[in-house]
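Late entry, adenosine-5'-diphosphate complex.
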Amino acid sequence: MKKILSAFSPSGWQSVSRLCIALLAAWLLGLALGRVALVLAIVLGIYSIVQLWNVLRVEYWLRNRRVESPPDISGVWGEVVTIISRIYRRKQFHRARVTGLLREFRRLTTAMPEGAVLLGPDHEILWFNGRAGEWLRLRRKRDVGIRIENLVRHPSFVEYLKTGYPSDGAVVEDLETDRWLAFNVVRTGTAERQLLMVRDVSQEQQLQHMRKDFVANASHELRSPLTVISGYLDALADDDALDPAWNSPVLEMRRQAERMRTIIKDLLELSKLESGEHTQEEQPVDMAGMLSLLRKEVMALEAHPRNVRLELQSDALLKGVESELHSIASNLISNAVKYTPVEGEIELRWWVDDDGAHLSVRDTGMGIAEEHIPRLTERFYRVDPGRARSMGGSGLGLAIVKHALQRHDATLQVQSKEGVGSTFTCHFPSARVVARSADVLAIA
Ligand code: ADP
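Prediction complete; structure with ligand written out below:
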């Protein structure tokens, strides 16, 4: 009670004291007239009518606040009107501020060179800017509230959303407009809202295609003149009439021509892998048989590590393009041969477990320092350029391995220690493992 009394405003106190004085005066007048109850009832009646009139005025003003100015009332009703006016003015100020900010935000997002789409927890569209609307052909009235995968149906985009937005995003080609679009979800820290950014990467894609085409064409064009040069060099090497002083230069020229041939062959193979089309059909490939053959080829080489072991722990087949799987295995094996001394050891292993199929090539060669490992699959990356060149490597072997593995949904794991040796392991998903049927076993 004390708390309520202390919370009364001066005008509240004024109204209470006015009522008390009026009641006291009415009581005294009633005593004088001998009709206390009647006089008190009349005074209370008048008081109630005045209050009701004030309530009606306030209610009328509240309903027509926009056009009517506040009623001029004294006492507690005047105080109520002042408080309501203040709250209303504050609300109007905030609304104007928020509207201004929203307008500014719209202006900025419309001017943005990128598309932005705000998605809800089920990927439903909550908002998008003009650029995203234009590129994805979205309409505000029609598409807000609809799940984006029902409108942008490109498989790699749907896969990107399904797999929890991997960091490399998704790049899709819009066949209708010939535009390449890159999608990336910006993590907002909450699953309730996701901001999907869309970029037009057509120019970058075009440049990349041009680069790939150029490399493929240049390699192709270089092949014929090189064949002629190699032919003449072979003829010169076999010519008994050649001055012996030329023997060594001709040998070196043949060696360099052979290196160029390897580089061109690898460049063409890489271009083919990058072009995205499989040159051959996928089919179950006998990896154990392929490794046995590759081992035989190594043993037939002039120089090779003495001990080349084969650990075939599964006879399962692997679904893939045979030439590409052969390229993976032969590149890894030829590296192991190149970088392992004659007294070293190589182990080829093929096994299947719950995680899928695995192919590993382990050697006890020179090994690779840790800082080089992440860059090994880059084109022309060599740990020791001089040594790798003298070994006749093109610097493209592991780049080919990486691309061929990617086309088989597989990954490459590299473990290596300098001076101890390296293990290159390819991990293929279980979906590619094909159990060897009785017919295949019979043929084998
Ligand atoms: P290259 O044709 O030069 O061998 P690669 O792409 O096959 O090119 O390999 C890239 C580099 O990785 C090589 O130059 C070499 O330095 C290193 N490397 C690859 N395999 C091995 C290995 N088994 N042992 C040691 N170093 C290796």
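Residues 331, 335-336, 339, 363, 365-366, 368, 376, 381-384, 388, 393-399, 422 surround adenosine-5'-diphosphate (CB under 6 Å). Will revisit in the morning.
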